[in-house]
Amino acid sequence: MDSSANAIGTLGESPLHAALKGHYAQPGDALEADLKGYIIDILRGAQLIEIQTRSLGSLRPKLTALLPQHPILLVHPLPKLKWIQRQPAAGPLPPRRKSPKQARLEDAFRELLRIADLLPHPNLTICLAFIEVEEVWREDGQGSWRRKGWSIAQRRLLGLYSERRLNGLADYAALLPPTLPEQFTNAELSTLSHIPGSLAGKMTWTLTRAGVLKQVGRAGRANLFERLL
């Protein structure tokens, strides 16, 4: 393995990414390997393992270039349990608190939509890893308005609960509730899956682009979808 590739690949690596890479690596794997000009998190023979903790869209060029020749396991973590530790600009460190948000399988579509057309590729397996994570928030005035200026300084892996692997359209079709009617709207998917309507829209857009669903018309102002399998 080229030492320069390792230096490039680990530059600015987050604690969460490093911990997940350590979890999935096995003896004999090459870490931060240079393959056809791309830095690969874990190279295991012909198989590539990529850990992506944030936007899946940034991996599109790498996936497009390497999927034809290599099986790729793409690991994307979802926080089943999240702790928030604030670091105020002044004063004592407050106790960390537990976030009320718990990720579900459907939340993966917030990122899967960015690579929807690649999901049917037989060489691509998506691994959704449900984790316990600690976020460190820093009061620096640089964060989003949602956090009132607090920045996320670090994310740390505390544990890994379970994972769900998706390979092939049947696996994605299985994420739809079995009680869906033959033709359905986003509103019906939202109700039966107990998810926000906006997330239901991301699911149907992704699954339509991937070839699991097709749009068959409209019901009033709503798009109407039908399963293809």
Strand and helix layout:
Layout: H1 3-10, H2 15-24, E1 30-35, E2 38-44, E3 47-51, H3 60-66, E4 72-87, E5 97-98, H4 109-112, E6 124-139, E7 150-166, H5 169-173, E8 183-184, H6 186-193, H7 197-210, E9 213-219, E10 222-227
Parallel strand pairs: 3-4, 4-6
Antiparallel strand pairs: 1-2, 2-3, 4-5, 6-7, 8-10, 9-10
Helix pairs in contact: 6-7
Fold and architecture overview:
This protein has helices spanning 3-10, 15-24, 60-66, 109-112, 169-173, 186-193, 197-210, and strands spanning 30-35, 38-44, 47-51, 72-87, 97-98, 124-139, 150-166, 183-184, 213-219, 222-227. The protein has 229 residues and is α+β, with helices and mostly antiparallel strands. It folds into two domains: 3-167, no CATH class; 169-229, Arc Repressor Mutant, subunit A, CATH 1.10.10. A hairpin with a 2-residue loop joins strand 1 (30-35) and strand 2.
Mean pLDDT: 93
Count of structural domains: 2
Gyration radius, rounded: 20 Å
Q: Give the CA-based shape.
A: globular
Enumerate how many helices there are, as a single number: 7
